[in-house]
Here is the input.
Amino acid sequence: MSTLDATGEAARRPFPGRRARTGDVLLQGVAGLAALGAVVLLGLLAYKIVDGARLSLSTFGLGFLVHVGWDPVHSHFGAGGFLFGTAVTSIGALILATPLALGIALFLTELAPRWIRGPVTALVETLAAIPSVVIGLWGILVLGPVLHDHVMPALHSTLGFIPLFGPSTTGSTIFTAILVLTIMILPIVSSISRELFLGVPPELKEAALGLGTTRWEMVRGVVLPHTRGGVAAAMILGLGRAVGEAIAVAQVIGAFNNGISWNLFSSGNTLAAQIALEYQSAETKLDVSSLFYLGLILLVFSLVVNLLARMVVRRVARRQGVPAR
Amino acid sequence: MSAADVSALQRPNDRLRRRRAVNRGMELLAWLASALGVAILGVVVWSVAKRGASELNLDLLTKVPVPFAIGNVKQGLANAFVGSLVVVGLATAMAVPFGILVAIYVNEFAPRAIRNGVGLVLDVLNGVPAIVVGIFVFGLVVVSHGQSAYAGAFALAVLMLPLVARATIEVLALVPSTLREASLGLGVTRWRTTLGIVLPQTVGGIVTGTMLAVARVSGETAPLLFTCSLAGTSIDSNPGHALQTVPVAIFELSESADPADHARAWAAALVLLLFILFSSLTARWLAARSRRKLGRAT
Amino acid sequence: MPRTGKLVRITLALAAAGLVAALAVTSAGAAGKRSTGTLKGAGSTLIAPALAVWQPMYGRDSLQYSAIGSGGGIQAISQRTVDFGASDAPMTKSQGEGCNGCVQIPWALTATSPVVNIPGVGAHQLKLTGTVLANIYLGTITKWNDPAIKALNKGLKLPNLSITPVHRSDGSGDTYVFTNYLSKVSKPWKTKVGNATTVSWPTGIGGKGNAGVAAAVSANSGSIGYVSIFYVIQNHLNLARLKNASGNYELPTIASIEASAQLVNSGRIPANNKISITNPPKSKKYANAYPLATFTYVIVPKTSPKAGELKAFITWALGSKAQASIKKYVFAPMPGSVVKAGKKTLATLHS
Here is the structure.
């Protein structure tokens, strides 16, 4: 605390009679323009996407969202199949990634001997750094063949009575895409969870242990409830990442547009992957506009995800009395 | 209490045994989950490292691609590496000054409402999927002016802006207000205070944020697909042309049937990964250092 | 000014140096290292190997080509993102209008062909008809030991294996040729799916480009795909014999493709050069014709600042030297009437 505090507040206001220097006005103006520019950029982006989708919106309306099939010959376009594919792959990836991510986070904060923590954390960070095109490359050349030759036939022969594990004919399937997406969102959810677990006040944990709880009961009773909101936000962010992923999914999912199948071992397609695959070759104006419509759906979804995650974080921060960022 | 009662309390009863068993079971599950998670991560990293390393040679960086070559023609991806350098360099040149200015406005001048508003805008921009940014820039720039490295760089800059701006905002906020007040109290103008006193304190954080943003966009393929992908095979650095870039090259090679193409894809993937790792690690190390220094300064 | 840490300053200097280097390289390039004479093209993956042969012959820096599929080629030239587009599919009426004053010129002749990956079936052993092919891609025939296939291949041991039909996931001239043929031989196909560069495939998986389909067929046992001949050769794929209207099971060779191309001489070549030579009718002339042969087109704007360079290039490509250089990849010599029609269209280009 400095003795200048009293003058600090006054320093922000110009002295009476102190003329506004041109330099000050210039800096504020230019910086303000930049901030305005950022807002304009977002507005322009939203406008361009909506504008691009206008033709398809007026032709198909909301029915686009439930129509399954992409037929450029008869000009019947619909997002239904892709919405299904996006939902199955993203939710599937979230279901697989969350327990693994929480397990890793708990392991790193509670269970691991000190010497393991560094290398494992480094490994998780490394995976987060791998670009999606490289994971897609790995998916095509390594994961796909392994799944096709060994894993999927084995699962089909043992669990084939469940419609999820139907017959497989290729390595480019929904299941491959789910695994690829799991690998991509695992680092995000894991890192955020780890930081949240580290942020639990040690006094609370020690108090619980001191009362005689086992370590699991302490985790269940103190750590998890304390970080519940943050973990939920991390999962939401992971879901957002999975939904928006175009490249890696396009490489491994087999690009099948014509139906909905619960068989995870069959090919499919997602909103983002379809844009990546079709965009260069869309020939009619309606085709291009329908792809923009898919982009609009993605944009709206990413907005919802973002706002939802912020809301969750804010509610958690309020409850814990921590100033929200 | 009698001695018998106390010893009864100390004897492990059924309920305690059950709780301990549950605890052991849960710890085992955590070990298994993390072992599985770590194994998956390890397999991917090891796969890329092994295949990439075995195919890595100097030709990759010095020779250009020869499509449909029959026989053992020496080729590489030199055009992609040069193109990536140009596109990412341009994107950085676009995003960094813009991001710094936005951060200066938000942190030094903006009233609370605007600060929250711009912060929200930056967060939303950060969450827009890269493919949507790609078709946005396509509709905005490519339809009228064709593909170019400028268009690709602009798309990448849109992705970088929120990262650079956020990092700069955070590090500007860390500069103690006493520093500003002292300067203003001595009669230094607002703009000179901001640019000459406050900003230099934040250089480390800005460099960190920029390097992290560069690491993030160096591997992005989707925004470049429609803005900067119809490129030639010779080494070209003219940003008015569409230039080949490393991620797009890997994407195209991954769809090929030729094992030689796959080999080059793995090698390029390894180089890309090493670059990204190097940038991220350097950035984090710098961040840790400047955080320590600022902590000492207050 | 306060002192920033030494290490931070060094890193800052390095980063600035890197940025300056990038920008220096960029501006050196921006000074126009490459002459504006380079012709940029994009489109068909079928013609891509021919362009790869032509590039060093015509002058390495004078040609640049991106193989993104015929649909992409039409889109690119419509938006004038490139100087010429390449497509195996002739433009539809609306595409022609969208291209705003473009012409199409046939500049090579080859075929797309069905390839299979069936354990126990050797090269060129499998025989197929158009109807069976249509039913496979419609999803009504699902196993390789289906009676319809067995009837055509007596003596061949076909396994009880599911069929995976592979199609093009991008806008493809090969798809256009393939669906053109299927629409001619199968009424259900014509009504249900139709003929275009991108269709709504009832079943199967997609691969990007000829290379993607070749990769998918190689990787998936029991799969079938349609691939242009260069890629069949390059990837050692197993060609299936296709029955033509005269009843013979043919493979795509220079001879069988040239026989199909004779179809153009039975009528007039339309002004827009839109020619279809799939499924030649039953006749002695077409006894050994290959049913899936096709011309492939270069699409250029009638009015273009590069009209002179385009005319020079395409005239050269239509010439005997260029055509002979790609014969090894099973690009057959074009009938004289087609070359003449192409040159006539080419003469209408102006800047």
About this structure: Chain A has eleven helices and two strands. The interface with chain C takes residues 69-74, 76, 144-145, 148, 167, 169-172, 254-258, 267, 277-278, 280-285, 287 of chain A (CB under 8 Å). The two ends of chain A are 24 Å apart (CA to CA).
